[in-house]
Every structure is written in structure tokens, then in C-alpha cells.
Design brief:
Layout lengths: L5 H9 L8 E2 L5 H11 L11 E7 H18 L3 H13 L2 E7 L9 H21 L3 E5 L7 H8 L6 E11 L21
Antiparallel strand pairs: 1-5, 2-3, 3-5, 4-5
Helix pairs in contact: 2-5, 3-4
Length: about 190
């Protein structure tokens, strides 16, 4: 017989990301961030490869990264409004955790499973932050998908990518509930 955890299930049934632009200080301190990262590390990881790692970006690092965006946007021909939005996301943030997908060589565990594990880490980190009472949002953006920018400004290796950037802080304005998927239209039952 299952041993349900009604509080955890109720949380998951009602969880909602908080827009990064609504997050402010205070932010979790380093001890709390370590706790959240420990929870995030308890994610499915076939082969125990740990095909992911973390970069914790504090306020000054985020401001530095904001300053790198305009030149990279110009180099890539990114529309000025998209560049401005990216600059604002980094400049406004006080704390963000970059989840890096870092696949390991393995004959048994395909790279796609390792990449999906990094995505699961993002979701686990997001939910851990929300469950701890923080506002949190999972973002990425064009700069995080540019290998040159990632390698020069975040020190990623050529085989690594960014699974997500989790912004953390204190929520200032709860967003309204949004429509959710109609499970019956996207579910097929196979009984034979």
C-alpha cells in the first residue's frame, strides 16, 4: 500500500514559477543555496555520472554579465529589443544559479539521458526554492545558447551547455494563475 505525502502532492498540484522581474532581495544566503543545490542533486541520474554542475551568480557577477550582452548581441545580429531584454534580466537579478549540462563519456548512459538529467536538476532546484518559500523562475535566453558567450564569460567547456538559469529571490507580486494543459487531450491510454 502506498504511503502518500498529501502536503508534497498539494504543493506540486499548485506550484507556480514566479516571473524573474518580480523577484527582489533578500535572496537565499550561501547556506540556503547549498541546501537547495543538495536537494537539486537528488535527481534521476542513471549511472551516477553527475552530468551537470552549478554556477551560482551573485549580484556583481550578474552585473558583469549584463555588460557583456550588448557586444555579443551586435556580433550575432540580435534585434536591439532582445538585447535590451537580456541586459535587463541579468542587471535586475540579485541571484541566479546556472545549471550546466556536462555530459560524461559513457558506453551505458546515452547523452540524451544525461541532458534530460540536467533538465530534471533545473526542475528539482526550481521546486526546492519554491517549497522553501522563495520566488523562483527558470530562464535561459539567446546569450545562454551562444557557445562563444558561454565559454568566454562563464567558463563552460565546448561539450557543455546551459540547461537553465534559475533566478531566485523574494517575490513581490504573485502572478495570476494561467491556463494549464488539458490532460485528456494530450494523453493516450494503451491497455493491450
Amino acid at each position: 500500500m502506498p504511503d502518500p505525502n498529501p502536503a508534497a502532492l498539494a504543493f506540486l498540484e499548485s506550484r507556480r514559477s514566479r516571473p524573474a522581474k518580480t523577484l527582489t532581495t533578500p535572496v537565499p544566503d550561501r547556506e540556503e543555496v547549498r541546501r537547495l543545490l543538495t536537494v537539486a542533486g537528488r535527481t534521476p541520474d542513471h549511472g551516477k555520472l553527475e552530468p551537470w554542475r552549478f554556477l551560482v551568480l551573485e549580484k556583481q557577477a550578474l552585473a558583469r554579465l549584463a555588460g557583456t550582452i550588448p557586444a555579443q548581441g551586435e556580433t550575432l545580429g540580435i534585434a536591439p529589443e532582445k538585447v535590451a531584454k537580456a541586459v535587463e534580466e541579468y542587471a535586475r537579478a540579485s541571484l541566479a544559479i546556472v545549471v550546466i549540462s556536462s555530459p560524461k563519456p559513457s558506453e551505458k548512459i546515452p547523452e540524451i539521458e544525461q541532458t534530460l538529467s540536467a533538465g530534471a536538476v533545473c526542475m528539482q532546484l526550481l521546486n526546492a526554492a519554491l517549497a522553501a518559500g522563495w520566488g523562483a523562475n527558470w530562464l535561459s535566453g539567446w546569450a545562454s545558447h551562444d557557445a562563444d558567450w558561454r565559454e568566454r564569460h562563464l567558463g563552460l567547456m565546448p561539450h557543455e551547455s546551459i540547461a537553465g538559469i534559475i533566478h531566485l529571490g523574494t517575490e513581490t507580486n504573485a502572478p495570476p494563475e494561467r491556463p494549464r494543459p488539458d490532460i485528456d487531450t494530450i494523453t493516450e491510454w494503451i491497455d493491450a
